[in-house]
Amino acid sequence: MTCKGICVRHKAQKPVGSGRYASGQKRCQICEIFIKWDGLWCPCCGYRLRTKPRNLKYKAKLRARTKKIMEPLTAPVITA
Fold first, then answer.
1. In the prediction, which pLDDT does 74 show?
2. Degrees (nearest 5) of the Cα angle 11, 16, 17?
3. Which end of the chain is more exposed for a tag (fewer CB within 10 A), N or C?
């Protein structure tokens, strides 16, 4: 499995104000690039795309963001 250069067409720009994984970008370890792709496998080399960060610091940031987003959805409804 080697990079064939197809992934360059799907290269993602770094988002402003949020993380790459939080905005839906995925990383290919073989091509060493962040791409905007709906599938789980790299369109270029066929390797599995990483959808979550490996670093503990960035994992915590992603969890905090997703928890913050999910919090209003799971809040109990109070009726009087």
1. 62
2. 135
3. C
